[in-house]
Design brief:
CATH superfamily of chain A: Phosphoribosylformylglycinamidine synthase subunit PurS
Shape of chain A: elongated
CATH topology of chain A: Mth169, Chain: A
Largest sheet of chain A: 3 strands, antiparallel
CATH class of chain A: Alpha Beta
Largest interface: A-B, 33 and 33 residues
Number of domains of chain A: 1
Order of helices and strands of chain A: EHEHE
Radius of gyration of chain A: 16 Å
Oligomer: homodimer
Helix content of chain A: 25-40%
Number of strands of chain A: 3
Strand content of chain A: 35-45%
Chain lengths: 76, 76
């Protein structure tokens, strides 16, 4: 089983990485870019006997800082 | 238009972040984790007149290091 956890900063939280990418893209001449946000993605390869509920626990205990980050989990 | 670029290290490229997360999850008592890979995701909010082909150009010119990284683009 593969779980993909996508973690993005919440709206309103300062995102210097996203801003740096935005500035760099504008500097390269790309137009029409309104906003850039950078987040992270963690792919977990899990044995099939892992309860999918455990993934949420992993997020809350280690992977995600829920004060400043939102996350979503996709299982495939 | 929103484009989501997901960037992952290619197979075989050392992924110390993924390994650190793996070790930490095992340390917290989570079992059945075979592999952890960490990558990044860049969300681009673009005005609707941007040619989607330009997104690929942004990846190749700035966002992705194609020697060690693979990427995929989703447009929504």
């Amino acid at each position: 089983m593969r779980a993909t956890v996508t973690i993005m900063l919440k709206d309103g939280v300062l995102d210097p990485q996203g801003e740096a990418v935005h500035t760099a893209l504008l500097g390269l001449g790309f137009a029409g870019i309104e906003k850039v946000t950078q987040g992270k993605v963690i792919e977990l390869n899990l044995s099939d006997d892992v309860d999918p509920k455990r993934i949420d626990e992993m997020c809350k205990k280690l992977l995600v800082n829920e004060i400043i980050e939102d996350y979503k989990v996709e299982i495939s």
